[in-house]
Amino acid sequence: MCLDTYRSENYIKTGVAFVTGKFNISTVVTNEKSDWSVAPLNKAPSFICIKAVHRLDTIEIYYSLDDKNYIITRNAPLQDNCPVMVGLMAACPDGNGFEARFESFSVMHLPDQRRLEWLKQYQ
Questions:
Q1: In whole angstroms, what is the distance from residue 64 CA to residue 75 CA?
Q2: What is the mean pLDDT of the chain?
Q3: What biological-process terms (Gene Ontology) are attached (predicted)?
């Protein structure tokens, strides 16, 4: 999954990366400079679910191997009140490539804390 803030120097990429001979949950956060976090998986997953939740000025990245139990893998800054583009991607920087399949992709609008407080105040 890739989230982009319409400015090439700010983006987040998250998913599965095959690095140093292992499958990893991987997240790259770029705010002018990039940092990369990985969490190794015990084996190659048959599928993986990724969830990104934007809360005010942060984004929380979760993954699940069963679409029931989600584990947070990253909490990163993301500009508040800034539109983002969300999409899917696959990349193979070296080697002969691979097959990737994306299923059940959706984007859901969730009211943030500020809007919930406004609704409470003006109902």
A1: 16
A2: 84
A3: carbohydrate metabolic process
